[in-house]
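Justification of computing resources. Each target in the renewal requires a structure prediction run like the one illustrated here; the chain below, 243 residues long, is used simply to show the kind of job we budget for.
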Amino acid sequence: MLIIPAIDLRNRKVVRLFQGDYEKTKVYGEDPLSYALLFVNEGAKRLHIVDLDGAKAGYPVHREIIVELAKKISVPIQVGGGIRSLRDIEEYLKQGVSQVILGTRAIESPEFLAEATELYPGKIIVSVDLKGGFVAVSGWLNTTEINYLDFLRELNSFPLFAVIVTIIERDGTCQGVDIDLVRKALEVIEHPLIVAGGVKNLEDIKKLLSIKPFGVITGRALYEGTLKLREALDFVAKHEDLI
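Resulting C-alpha cells:
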C-alpha cells in the first residue's frame, strides 16, 4: 500500500481545505517544491498534486509550478485540478507528469474519458469525490445524483491507472477514514483504489492496511504532525506481507 503525500496549490501556496470548502483554507507554506523534496527525502514513492484554483476555474492555473515539480522530483507525480481537455492531458504528460487525474470531465462526459484513455492507457486516474455517497464535481462545489458504487462499476471498462475515492466530508478534517465506505468500493472496483479523506494518524494507516487498497493520500496529518511519514512508511513495509 502506497502512502501518497498531497500538495494542494492555491494562489501558488501549499494549502489544505476543510471538507473541500474554499472559504476554509489553511496555508502551510510558500514553496511547493520544498515540501515535495521533503516528502521524497522521507521515502515517499509517489506524490499527489492538486491545482485547487484550476479545479474551480476549469483549466490549469498552476501549470508552471507543477511542471517544475515534475522535472525536479525523482518519483512519479499524479496531477489533478482543471484538466478538462486532451491538450491539457498531453501537455502535462509531455512535461514529465506520470498520471493525470480527471474528475469533473470524466463524470460529465464518458465519451471524453473513453477518448482520453484510448490515447493514454494507463496514464489516467479518475477521481471520484463523494458527498453523502454521491459524486461531486467542479472542485467539489456541486453534488450530482450519481451513486458512487454505480459509477465505480462503470469505470471498470476503461484502461485506467487507478481510481481515487475521496470522502469530502472527511477531507482535511483528520477525523479518521471511513473504512466501511472503502471496503464497499473495493468490492465493486476492478482498478487499483487510492483512498483520500480523513487520515489522522498511524491507526488509520493500520486500518487501511487491513483491507489493502493500492494507496492512501494524506495531507493535513503530515503538515500538522499527527502522522509521521517515515514512521508510516516503515510500518507498511514491515507489516504489509503479514496481513
